[in-house]
Every structure is written in structure tokens, then in C-alpha cells.
Amino acid sequence: MDALRKINPYKPTSLLDVEVNELKEDPFFDISRHRRIHVFEHLSRTEGILCPLWTYGSKTVTVVDGYNRLRWAREQGLGHVQCLVFPEDADKCYLLLQKVVASAGFRKFDIFEKANVVKNLSRCLTPDEIKRRIFPILGIPAKPRMLKTLLKIASMTLDEIVVTLEGGVSERTLMKLAWWNEESRACACKLFAKLRCSTNIQLEITEMIEDISRLEETSPADVIDHESIRQVIEDDFLTQRQKTEAVRRLLKQWLFPHLSEVEARFLEAKKQWKLPSGVRIEPPPFFEGDLWQITLSFSNAQELKDQLEKLAKSEIASQLEVFLGKDESSHKIT
Amino acid sequence: MGKMSRVIKSPKRIFVHESVWNSPVVENLRKNLPEASFHVLDFQNRENFTFFPYDLEVVDFKGRFIRSCPATKFYHCCGYVILHFGELCSIGCTYCILQAYWNQPCLRIFGNTDRMLRELQDFLDHHPDTLFRIGTGEFTDSLLLDPWTGFSEIIVPFFARQKNAILELKTKTSFVDRLLELPHDGHTIVAWSLNAPSISQKEEGKAAPLEVRLQMAKKCAERGYFLAFHFDPLFYFPGWEEEYSHTIDRLFSYVPSDQIVYISLGAFRFMPELKEIILIKRPQWKYASGEFVPCPDGKRRYFKGIRIKLYKHIASRIRRHAPDVCVYLCMENGTVWKQSLGFHPSEQGGLPSMLDLAVKKCMKVGLHCSRSAAPLLLQKPQPYSSDAFTLSKII
User: Fold this and answer.
1) Mean pLDDT of B239-255
2) Digit-coded pLDDT (tens) for B101-160
3) Residues B352, B354, B359: CA angle, nearest 5 degrees
4) How far is B291 from chain A, CA to nearest CA, in Å?
5) Which of A325-334, B190-199, B304-313 has the weakest average pLDDT?
6) Structural domain of A11
7) Which of A215, A313, B150, B349 reaches 20 to 30 Å from B303, CA-CA?
8) What is the mean pLDDT of chain A?
9) From A330, which residue of chain B is nearest by alpha-carbon distance?
């Protein structure tokens, strides 16, 4: 699109009061529909529209920027709104890009807005141009299949977006969920709405669900809908944190049966060892590597001395040897 | 020209850096690929040029040809020295790590082989009492382009003249015919990567079928070449025991065990980025899903218990056929070594020394060498002090 390669080819021609009824909508520019409530709250606080809407055309006045302000104006029964008017022949892609650049200066777009911008500009720019020119403006990393992911997000319905937002699904998680089918995505959103966990935990849970569904040749929805997980998320006596931990544990046992078995065996063995109080023994993370750790807690030099003596007298070393030896003898080649 | 795989296609367009236009490798390409088009590679405009997978770049390489294995301080490294002669591979194994390492569109080889050989000769001469195990199969397949580049005709005779080095050519192809007539003097190991039949068939793209690889190994053995085999990456899947046993049984039905210098085992491991890259291409690919745990080197590996199961089974099956062959683990920790092979590498002087010893015993090369190349080249300290276990002390 030639207009996008020129500097400022279309300047606004006038600032006018336009009748609200005369303003036409175009989904091409309406990229923030899901933020309606947020904008309404803001407008109510500021007691009105401070910035003029952007429009173009004279016979038909189409809104470029300010869709949520327009909705608010309609709801408030306002007769006129102030509009900055671009010429009739202004290029639509150019106007959308200008709107994005102008807004990016004072607020960050969320993932749905970014996805809508990318989808709409894909009509006039090549995928390579989108990645090279639009991604940096929107702060999108140029990762493999990012464009396709955003196009998938842009194709979500408003209802689905609302469910995702209500579920507290993070943007990074949504990038993964975008590739799931609609049913699985809805299940994940419901799950995260119940758990209210951090982005990292969402990603961990998402990856485990994906891995299990791949191995079991089933859908992520079927994994989430498994009886054991359903019981946890429907348990009214558990807090969100407890539910999160329980779901992580269940998925881990499912995906990592060998590791879970060794962890359980270690915990059982540790109970038998009767370690002195204030002493903790930890295996290497995931039992990977050769480095075990022992932690002593003390508050003064005498306590440290006592702890060390107790530890020296304890049978921890030989008990650990037995634990490791069992493991070792079962694997030795004869 | 020798027997070629039915599926690996020859390069169609060859882009040559002006300064290597007359190099022996390019001469060979012109001779062996009369139908290919040759173009001078314009580095200025390279970024704007669209390459295709069957293109080949021949460049004047400015970097170091000799490199060490990246290694980590958490896992035992074999101390293999890399002769960097090219990049990328068109065989197309689904699990290939090169997909994540190299961001380039087509195969690339280095045309300035004269500088490569000079650098190599200087390096070997500078350390006359150090034994070097040098391989070309780290960043590409050693023989993938050999039918057309004839690189083996340059490198195999070169190593035949060296007293303190052996060459390992690692491949999944059947491209060995050129090797058969070369004067190797027992200084070259031809190595194949092997896997379970179903993995070879479904996951190893255009690689030669397993039976063909073994037939080629037999041919090489008959011409006096020493052999090595790499069961890497090993996968844990339903039926793995029978499948890997089958491959091992077939292997020993083809080749004499006394010509095998070593066999390595390495369970599938990957950087998290590789999983993403593979799943973009194959969303239902199962082999990166399962009991993979984060490891101290940033990679993910099968949970230790699974790796031990894999190694123990495969090593014992190998031992059944060849009790004395040197079997080692690639990038594993001491616990896994101990529990799967029954000993810690430090008990044999460390992994590099163990492999040096295998080379000396089997190939009778570098018998005068008292040093291992590992301490010289490994960029990271190994999990044990290699100085404490020099080869001379063991012998």
C-alpha cells in the first residue's frame, strides 16, 4: 500500500461537531470492542469525552478512532461529538496505522487489540512487511508463527474474549491456547478462572495438559475434564492456591509417573530417617545430577555446634546410602 | 560414482564465494554436477536473496576450523574435537538439533580447504604427544555432500599421514563408495548413527534405511576402516526394548566387533526452543512430550530412571555380542554412568581418556601419545579433575 510508505500523506482537514447519529461504524477500525466497560468507567470518571474522535469522509462520516467513546456518547444520549475529520480519499490502512501509532504513545495495546490491528493490516501489507514494520510498533516479538497466532486470536468471538479476560488468562498463555480448539480453550479459561494463578504457573499447566493430550491422543478439554481434576476445581473447601497446587500435582503425577514414584519413595524414606530438628535434606532438582543438599538452621554458634553434633551422631549418611544403593543395585549391569 | 541414496537430492544451484571459485571442492562440484548452475556469491546482496533448501553455498570461511565440543560442567563430555567444514543438513530428521542452532536457509560448506588443512596440520604438529579424535559430524552430516564435493578425498589421506590423530566421519547416509578406494591407513573411523527401526523409518527423513547403513558399514569394514556407532538420540516409547534389541542384533550380524572402536549411547535431550520448533512443524509429535525434566545445562532430558533403563538395556544387549567393545554415554552425569554401565568414567581416567584408550587398543594409533586432547580444548571444566587421571597414569 503506497500510502503507508509516505510521510503524512493525508492530514485532517477540519475539527467539527458531528451529530452522533451521522457517525458510521466500520469493524476495520473497531479494534478495542472488548475494552468497552473499561473505557466507559474512565469516561464516567473524567465526566465526558476530552479527545475528539477521528473520522473520515464528508458524505458518510466513518469513525476511525473512538468507538468506545461513541458507544458511551450514544448511551449518554449525547447529540454531538467533536471529530477530527480526515479527507474522503484517505487510505484506510494508513488511517488505522496512524491511530495505532498515536495510541501507542500513551497506552499499551492488549493482545486482542494487537491481533485485530495485525489482522486488519494484513489486507494491505505482506506478512513480511507486517513482521518488519508493524510488530515493532506494537511491541510484538518476531517469534516463529507469531503472525499466525495473532490471526487466530483475532478470529476469536467477543464472547470468547470476555471469557478469556474473566479467566485471567495471561497473554503468553493465550498465545498457546490460541492453537487449541474452541472447546479446549473454553475449558482452559474456566480452569484458570478457578485457579487465578500466575503466568508462569499457567504456562506450566498448559504445557503439561498439551503433553498429556498429545501422548494420550486426546484433546486438552478431555484432560481438563478428567474426573480427578474436576473434583479439585469443584471443591468449595479448597482455596485458589490449594486448587492450583492440587491440579499441578495431579498433572505432574499423570505426565511424570516415574519421577513421582521416586519422589514419593524419597518422602517416605525421609520420614523414617528421623532427621534432627532444624536439618533438611534435599535431592538434586528432579533427581537430576549428583549434588544433594543438606540445610542446617541455627540462631547462634552453640546451636550450630549442637546441630553438627546431632547430625554427626545421626545415621543419615548410611540411610541415604541405603536409599541410593537400592536405586543403584537395581540398575547395575551383571 | 558410487551407490547413492534414492532420496537425498544433489544441489541444483551452487553459490560460490569468488575467492574459492577455483578451490578443489568447487572443482569437484563442477565435475560431479554438470547440470547444476554455478553463481558467484555476492555477500553484499545476500540478505535480499531467496535461497532454497537444495541450494548450496561454498564460502571462504574466516573463523576457526578447529573447535571443541561445547560441553558443560555438569555432564561428562567425550572430548571430541570438531573439524568445522560445513553447516546444516538436508536429511531432515524430525528431532534434529540443527533446526534450533542454525538460522540459515541452505547447506553451506567451506571452500578454503587449503587453510583448513594448514590450520589442522599446525595444530597437530604443535601437540605431538597429544592424541586427537577429530570429527566432522557435529554441525552437518560428514558424508552428505561427499558424492559431489569429494571432500573425503582431501581429508582421509590427510589423516592417514598423521601420527597423533584419527578422523571420525559420522553419517546417516550410504555415501561411502568414494571412501572405499582411499588410502586411510587405519586412521579413519566411519561412524553411523543408528536407531530403533520405527524411529529410523518415520523420523529420519531422507537418511538411508537402517539395513543399508549396516551394509555400508560392512563394506567399509571389509576395506579395513574402523567403525563406530552412535545410538543417539534414544527414545523411550512402547516397544523400545524389542526395537533397539533388533537394531543391535542386526548390527552385529553385519560387522565384526573387533573393528568397532566405540559405541555411544545418548538419550533424546533438547533445548526448550527445539520442542517449540518441532511442534510448529508437527503439532502431534509425541517424542518431546513425556517425562522430560529441566537439567542444569538448560536442556531437558528424560527423567534419570528412564535414561538408566534405556542405557542399561542397550548396553547389556551390546555386551552380549561384544563384551569388550567400548560403550560410553554422551553428556551424562556420574550417577547415570554408575547406575547404567556399572562404573563412573573417572574409574577409567575420565571419558576422554577412556576413548583415547579405545583408539589406541583398537586402531593402534597414537601409542606414543601421553596426553589427551580434552584438557587442551574443553571450554568448561568437567565434573571431575581430568588432570588427576591422565592417560599415562592409567597405562
Assistant:
1) 98
2) 766 778 999 999 999 999 999 999 999 999 999 999 888 999 999 999 999 999 999 999
3) 95
4) 5
5) A325-334
6) 2-107
7) B349
8) 88
9) B339
Annotated domain spans of chain B: 64-105+113-394
Higher pLDDT, A298 or B98: A298
Question: Do A213 and A284 reside in the same domain of the chain?
Answer: no
* Chain B: closest CA distance from residue A294 (Å): 19
Give the span between the Cα atoms of A14 and A88, in whole angstroms. Answer: 12
- For B268-294, the pLDDT digits (tens) are 999 999 999 899 989 999 999 999 999
- The verdict on A39 and A81 lying in the same domain is yes
Residues A192 and A287 reside in one and the same domain: no
Phi, psi angles (nearest 5°) of residue B360 = -65, -45
Residue A132 resides in a domain:
no
Contacts of A285 in chain B (CB under 8 A): 293-294
Q: Is A265 within a domain?
A: no
Residue A148 lies in a domain: no
CA-closest candidate to residue B351, choices B369, B320, B326:
B326
Mean pLDDT of B183-187: 97
CA B395 to chain centre: 28
B104 within 8 A of B49, measured Cβ to Cβ:
no
> Hey, which CATH number is domain B64-105+113-394, 3.90.1150.10, 3.90.650.10, 3.40.50.720, 3.80.30.30?
3.80.30.30
* Same domain, residue pair A278 and A247: no
Count of other CB atoms within 10 angstroms of residue A136: 11
Nearest to B315 among A259, A289, A333 (CB): A333
- Where does a domain end: A255, A282, A312? A255
Residue B72 per-residue DSSP state: B
